[in-house]
Amino acid sequence: MYDVTIAADARSIALSAGTTAPVRFHAIWLRDNAWDPETRSPGNGQRLIALRDIPADTAIASAEVAGNKLRVTFTPEGKTVDYDIAWLLAHAYDRAHAQGRGRAAPRIETWDSGLMSAVPVADFAVVKSDPAALRGWLAQVARYGFGKLTNGPVRDGALFDVVDLFGYVRETNYGRHFEVRTEVNPTNLAYTGLGLQAHTDNPYRDPVPSVQVLYCLESSAAGGENMVVDGFRAAERLKAENPDWFDVLSRHCARFEYAGSEGVVLRSRRPMIELAPDGELVAVRFNNRSTAAITDVPFDEMETYYAAYRRFGEIIDDPTMEVTFRLNPGESFVVDNTRVLHARKGYSGTGTRWLQGCYADKDGLLSKLAALSGSFAEAAE
């Protein structure tokens, strides 16, 4: 049984149950989050009013608990709204908030080479036909930042079938997709047999494509194994080793540029380690091939910046950070391009190696995961 108490100034309430600590909510927050049909559209849940339509002096005239509902009457509107208590508690903000710069979000798990024995992998045909399997695989991708699919079709354009599982292709100057195989006079080093340092793609874009798909169609050349590194774990390691180095890479912007194709000049200015205002890790941008002259670091900090940049690269290159796997025809992997760096080992000029790649966006993947999770939760009720 829940109890509700109105604060002396009527600007907030406290909701409690038994011996548990009370959870407080401000009157203005409650009014803004009302779900009555005059405030929210019944069809899509979007607000029908703006904050300007809510009186600035909103207070609570009365509040009472009735079963699993909290009924609140607001003044000066004289409006009464019922709230689901479970929803209120799930969205409570009167709690201890996470502290510290460089922390990962609660929903994700950082990793190193120890994940090699538990690579998130699923069968393409299964996730395509079974929503529960798709939800499970997408949840792993969201948690670890990458995932592999096996037993897909071996045909030109099959990578679009992977994107169709969760979202939409993001077209760039490379087209709807790009070929990854050896070329003569390539416009990008990705099209050679050289090994590539672990990197995030397209750091010169704003915003960067937040999901990348690589799909294997041919793989008879020796070498060319794919490799992924958790950029957030690398950032955590740098912070643990030298907080000043972490700080300098997260406080100052690097610059990135690509001008390898006629008529294309792409530039961006972002930190290599990007944090939200509350200190949560947001993104890592790291690509030695596309880093332009760094000009946004003060003279007195530039040597420290380069020491930090060097060490961050050494951590990323550390074999204990990498998870390596080979893609065979019909196999693919999806990577969160804002977090997980990818690379490949060098491969020989004999045999063939043909991958196709494309970009998508993480909001589509997370939207699909949320929708599937909601559907299963409703079915369980």
Fold and architecture overview:
- By secondary structure, the chain is of the alpha+beta class.
- It has 2 domains: 2-90, NE0471 N-terminal domain-like; 113-372, Double-stranded beta-helix (4-Layer Sandwich).
- It is 25% helix and 27% strand.
- It contains 9 helices and 20 strands.
- It has helices spanning 27-32, 85-90, 124-129, 131-144, 159-163, 231-241, 243-251, 299-317, 362-380; strands at residues 2-6, 12-17, 23-26, 59-66, 69-75, 79-84, 121-123, 146-150, 178-180, 196-199, 211-219, 226-230, 254-258, 266-270, 273-275, 281-284, 322-325, 332-336, 340-344, 353-360.
- It has a 6-stranded mixed sheet.
- It is globular.
- The model has no long low-confidence stretch (mean pLDDT 92).
Concise structural overview:
It comes from Defluviimonas salinarum. This protein has 381 residues and is of the alpha+beta class. The chain has helices spanning 27-32, 85-90, 124-129, 131-144, 159-163, 231-241, 243-251, 299-317, 362-380, and strands at residues 2-6, 12-17, 23-26, 59-66, 69-75, 79-84, 121-123, 146-150, 178-180, 196-199, 211-219, 226-230, 254-258, 266-270, 273-275, 281-284, 322-325, 332-336, 340-344, 353-360.
| CATH topology description of the largest domain | Double-stranded beta-helix
Which percent range describes the beta-strand content? 25-35%
Helix share of residues? 10-25%
- Name the structural class: alpha+beta
- Spans where pLDDT lies below 50 across 5 or more residues: none
Rg over C-alpha atoms, rounded to the nearest angstrom? 25 Å
Domain TauD/TfdA-like: 123-359
InterPro entries: AlphaKG_dependent_hydroxylases, GBBH-like_N_sf, TauD-like_sf, TauD/TfdA-like
Organism: Defluviimonas salinarum
Protein name: TauD/TfdA family dioxygenase
